[in-house]
Amino acid sequence: MNKLNLILQAHLPYVRHLEYPKFLEENWLFESLNETYIPLLRMLERLDADGVDFRLSICFSPTLATMLTDAPLQERFVDYMNGRIELGEKEVERTLREETECHDMACRYLDEARRNLERFEALGRNVLSGYKALHEKNRIELMTSAATHAYLPIYKDYPAAVNAQVEMGMRTHERIFGEPGRGFWLPECGYYPGLDSILADNGVSWCQLASHSVITAKDKSIYSGYKPVELPSGVYGFVRDWSITSLVWSSVSGYPCDSDYRDFYRDAGYYLPLDYVRPYIHEPEVRVFTGYKYHAITGRIEDKAYYSRERAMEKVALHTDNFLYSIKRRGYTVESAGIKDPVFNLCFDAELFGHRWYEGIDFLEGVLRKADASDDFLFTTPTDIILSNGESEKLRLNESSWGSGGFSDIWLDGSNAWVYRHIFKAIERMEELTERFPDQGSLKGRFLNQASRELLLAMASDWPCIIHDGTSVTYAEKRLRNHLGSFNVVYSAMSRNTVNTEWLINAEKSSEIFPDIDYHLFEKKDKD
To answer: What is 418-522's CATH number, 1.20.1430.10, 3.90.180.10, 3.30.300.20, 3.40.50.1000?
Structure first.
């Protein structure tokens, strides 16, 4: 039997700007809530109600989990959804009069928005409570990640900083979900020798690994990633199956590239008259995605065909069958090599499903339903596999990631390398502060805690990734400058043994994340 570990990572950087009535980058959260997190939850609840026997693992990163439980952001999401519903009502009327080919989809989008908002309100505006309920039913395994999704291999020379990311990630998960997590999503599947010891020290039982981790391992692998890898510290690693995940993940040949699927980029907010969409975009006249998209991918042409939901769902059925067939065929090949009951680890960004790939949640539902109806597949979780005491192998791994070629060039190249000299300097100064002020409480303790908070936020992998991709570069650079600048405010003041109280109060209000942070996180374990 083929055992399937479906591991989804839900992550967004911490974006919260209450000082503005509306903030453009907060739409990253609102779009993902409306198009992925709520629809995915509704789909899983539907499977559970239908008695489908499914298992999967989901990581909500600490930054995302914090935003999802933030009352002001929850209120802003309600405002966002009310705007989308208002636009949908206008679109239903408009497409009834003109562009009638879009009418059915306009009605569908409006209905989805209403259902999502209704479910959001029913959950007390905390979507994580729905996922926690499924976790308590043993349908999903909840896991965590590094505090701000830092790409950890880059910080391997600063073990205290790596430990701070891991410990704060574990602590945030327990605070929000009420229990510690066993699994830990390595940001970007980034691993380096010795990282597993830090994970083990913080109570982590397992993590996911890139396929390159086995390919480039110091030891020859017997199971080629189709059984758990026992790392030197005793933490288990589950190796992402590149060949199977590429059927979905590939930006060239993956299922989401099919010409019958809905086009992500052709959005009504960009081509309808400005006066019509002005209430739903950003001031002064910044066009944005509205979620109302009516065209199929079609191909690399300007004149896109209208989207057909019927044709798209036919493709979903074909791709669902092909996905399970490919796993079954691969299973025969693996078993012929002497690996019985192989484990396929299928690791994806959650936002691919529903948000980037509109039909992706339908695809996942089809896979889970058809797998349950077959004797050839068993969806499980890494913890269940570990507890079953099945076969595993001990391996010593080299540094790796799921980036191109298994390297780190996305997060460290000519476009973004400059950021690290500033972050490294801040880490060294934070370590210095923990030595100079080993026992500070009250105001000075809060001041030092804020320095730790700013440093963790500066370490987020999102900023160098955005700079590398050339997307929201101005915003990413501004965030880096602001966090590092705020850190230096603390360092300069503490060097004079003073505290800027007004600045501290404002800084704490602007970044209400990690309320239980302790600056001793950055204390060096080994002092020479």
So the answer is: 1.20.1430.10
